[in-house]
Amino acid sequence: MVGISCRAAVIAGVALSLTAFSASADPLVISNWDGYLAPDAIKKFNEASGNSAELVLHATNEEIMGKLIAAKGKGYDVVFVSSPFAEVLHNLGLAETLDHSKIPNLANLYPEATALAHDKGNTFSVPYTWGTTGLCYRSDLTPAPTSWNDLLKPTDALKGKTTMLATDRWLLAAGFLAEGYSVNETDKAKLQQTRDLLIAAKKTLLAYDDTTFYSKLVSGEAQLVQAWDGWCNYGITENPQIKYVIPKEGSDLWVDTMVILKSSEHKDAAYAFVNTMLDGANHRWAAENILYKVPNKAAMDGLDPKLLEKYPNMTMTPAELLTHEQLRDVGAAQRDYSRTVSEIKASN
To answer: Where are the alpha helices (DSSP H) in the chain?
Structure first.
């Protein structure tokens, strides 16, 4: 998820068992985050298609991007990356221009999933999951928040009981939104103003936390946290008093995508894999187990209504999602983002 780390290494309740597939000395190589595919997805794909595919894991977008850029994409066939990184791969000429005739299951996607700002028409990326970033809180311990400032300028009762995401784009996005700016803001004066706001907020935090914040809510150590919607659902699983809300200033729209590398020597197999993932039943696995919304109408229509009742943020419609600004590649300004976040975290 440009400075975007992804849904970091551990996805609650979803353990991925990796099996070595050695049918070919030169297999189709798929790079993804841990727990983002069904445990038997690769095995089933190989058996059904006759391909030899293997899964390698990356912990963050930055990790896999470093490898892809250094090798000009060689050694990889399909990569799961967040949309700003897909944009970077396209701009660097590393992403394949997609032949839609080879991905007939694109028809399962919502129309809104073909109109995403980073890649209108899905010319180089296929959306896999999407959602929002908001506030996750213990409704039995603190009043319902309504604004990002409830997190950034907490009451005395909440000081020391809040967490924020540590990753550049989402940490800054909370400040940008609180100030009424774009989540892709590049104006240096506005970036400095946001830095000052977040430095002040740091003094009130329990921690920066990308992976265990929902556990802190469950234990009561934290009462209000910045959270991706799906990760808030992990907390809700353990304690129904945990709730999720999008502040009045809005959210970012995050999108995780599948990209076929232009350097792939297994293009037909790569297309077959992407198409397989877009099958309604296969894609539904992600919604049911990762608890993220997926941009696949066939998959979402097949969800158990009880699941949607338990996790209300999963009922957010595609049209509602697209009212929020999508995270984009900010180009050279990413250096300013990284420097700003370093200054925030180094502050006293």
So the answer is: 41-49, 61-71, 83-91, 149-152, 168-179, 188-202, 213-219, 229-238, 267-277, 280-289, 297-301, 305-310, 318-321, 333-346
Q: What is the 3-state secondary structure (H, E, C) of 35-63?
A: CCCCCCHHHHHHHHHCCCEEEEECCCHHH
CATH topology of domain 131-252+328-346: D-Maltodextrin-Binding Protein; domain 2 (3.40.190)
Residue limits of CATH 3.40.190.10 in the chain: 28-129+254-315, 131-252+328-346
Distance separating alpha carbons of residues 283 and 70, to the nearest angstrom: 31
**Can you give the pLDDT of all 348 residues of the chain as single tens digits?**
433 333 333 333 333 333 333 334 489 999 999 999 999 999 999 999 999 999 999 999 989 999 999 999 999 999 999 999 999 999 999 999 999 999 999 999 999 999 999 999 999 999 999 999 999 999 999 999 999 999 999 999 999 999 999 989 999 999 999 999 999 999 999 999 999 999 999 999 999 999 999 999 999 999 999 999 999 999 999 999 999 999 999 999 999 999 999 999 999 999 999 999 999 999 999 999 999 999 999 999 999 999 999 999 999 999 999 999 999 999 999 999 999 999 999 998
CA distances 59 to 175, 201, 213, 218, Å, are 25, 27, 18, 24
Tokens of 245: 């809300």
CATH number, span 28-129+254-315: 3.40.190.10
d(CA 252, CA 131): 8
Residue that has been written with the tokens 């969800």 in this structure: 303
Plot region of 237 (φ>0 → left; ψ -120 to 50 → alpha; else → beta): alpha
d(CA 153, CA 198): 10
In terms of Cα–Cα distance, which of 310, 342, 283, 243 is closest to 110?
283
pTM: 0.90
**What are the C-alpha distances in Å from 294 to residues 46, 117, 169, 202, 290?**
24, 17, 22, 33, 10
